[in-house]
Amino acid sequence: MTPVPKHFAERWAADTRKPIPRVATEAEMLNAFLEWHRQTFELKCSNVDPGRLSDRGIPPSRLSLHGLLRHMAGVERWWFRQQFAGEDIDLLNYSDDEPDQDFENLDGDVGVAFDVWRDECERSRLVVAGASSLDDTGTDGATGEPLTLRWVLLTMIAEYAQHNGHADLLREQIDGATGH
Asked: Which among 15, 84, 137, 139 has most CB atoms closer than 10 A?
């Protein structure tokens, strides 16, 4: 067996995220991957001066860690609560007049944005815990077509993976931190 290079072993030893099981049920594995990505996103936003979380570091992009935080709170709500569970609640950081306000309107308190995101993640976990199967369905509000919990979990994993890449670049621009 090939030994693990020292650099990787040290980085893995310092990782605070819960490991993703390599042998588990499909539901356990999908939930573990989503949690890992949520934790990764939070790590990328941690230990940054709150005033710097709104920095838009890669022109001409309007992305910032604060905007991504607002966006991910809205995405959690949209897919789990509104589309899958069918809750009749308002969208977060979106209107037809300002569809990109999650990224554009950063005048709110970053601490509040973290609280909202964490709350939406917890509510999403409750929706998942209340389902009996990955085959349980909700309804896509845009198309009227059914969507399974499996599809929602995979969609959220992909969404976090994409935005964790953005967050990694933004964080490196802010203070040079890389990893996670």
From this structure: 84
Q: Which of the residues in the chain have pLDDT under 50?
A: 8-9
Question: Nearest 10 degrees: CA dihedral of 38, 40, 41, 44?
Answer: 160
Q: Name the helix (H) or strand (E) containing 127.
A: helix 110-130
DSSP string, 61-107: ----HHHHHHHHHHHHIIIIIIIIS----PPSS--SS-TTHHHH---
Question: Would you say domain 49-175 falls under CATH 1.20.120?
Answer: yes
Q: Where are the domains of the chain?
A: 49-175
Residues 58/105, Cβ–Cβ less than 8 Å: no
- Predicted confidence at residue 6, as pLDDT, reads 58
**For residue 179, which of 6, 35, 57, 10 has the smallest C-alpha distance?**
10
Determine the pLDDT at residue 14: 65
E-only strand ranges, the chain? 137-139, 146-148
